[in-house]
Every structure is written in C-alpha cells, then in structure tokens.
Amino acid sequence: MNQFSQIYHAQLVGGKTWRVSVIPENLAIDFDLYIFDPQGNEIAKDASNEPDAYCTFTSLIDGVYQFKVESPDESCAFTIKVDPVSILFSRLYHHRLPSGTSWSVAVIPSEPNVDFNLYIESPEGEQLTQDSSPNADAYCTFTTTVEGVYSFRVESLKGVSDYNFKLQPLSNS
Asked: What CA–CA distance (Å, rounded) separates 157 from 172?
C-alpha cells in the first residue's frame, strides 16, 4: 500500500467563505482533505470514502491556510481548487441524542438546482463530519460518543429550496 500525502498553502483574507475541492482523475482512488488555519488548528475535513473531497469553511483571520491532501491507497493526478463562495441560506438545528448510537442525517431538497451543505458538531463544539460537496443534497453518518445536544447546520451555496431534514438512528452500539 502506497499512502500519499501532500500539503498546499494559500494566503486567504479573513471573513470570507471558501470551498476547497479535490477532484481526482482516477475515480477509483479515495482522496481526503484536511484544512488548517494559520495557527495550525484543523478547521475542516473530508475523510469520506468518496474519491473526491470537498470542504467549505470561513477564514476568520487573514493568513496562510494549509490544505493537506491524502490518499490511503496511492497517488494519481488530481485538481485542487480554492474558490470564494457566498452563503445564501443558513439554518441551525439542535437535537439531544443518546450516547453510543449511529445516525444518518440527510438534507433532501425539493428543487434540483441548489447546493446544500451539512455540518455536524458534538456537544463540545467539535466538528464531527460534514458534506460540502457540490451536490444538491447533503448526507452524513456519525456515531454519538456522549449524550448531549448535537448541532446540525444546513447551508445553501446555490439557490434556495424547501428541503426535508431527516435524522434517523442506524443502530445501537
């Protein structure tokens, strides 16, 4: 197994929202993306099993941000893009959830020409997972490790649409 890792840097202006995209030429290779602020704190990640990786984040301060691209399998040619975006809509949900349960969360729009993102945070405020792909819908799974109030943020970067927000248990651990 040949693991691949590469770090890229970009000087970003504070107060803007950005989408970082990693798109491989070979869709059989899984790429992950980790984003770090100028102090070295991880602020966003996409470590899904999908070949491409997308993260959307807001740069809170001016500075050099790091984008770490990894593949647990091997390397292939890919494109990385950092583009400014505008948030058209944002809504925050809070749900008290028990510990030790796996959950699926889906944001399903009624219109096809939108781009919904989904961000999930633990009761401690740690980002657990996100779906910031350019797809119309957003879907995540996660497992609760503590009982508490979890936060779910839905954002639209393209278009506005009614949507269904579905939070369902998958299994008890």
From this structure: 34
Q: Architecture of 4-85 per CATH?
A: Sandwich (2.60)
Tens digit of each residue's pLDDT (9 = 90 or more) over 2-49: 578 899 999 999 989 898 999 888 888 888 999 999 999 998 888 888
What the block records as the tokens of 145 is 């490790």
**Domain residue ranges of the chain, discontinuous segments joined by +:** 4-85, 89-172
In this prediction the pTM is 0.72
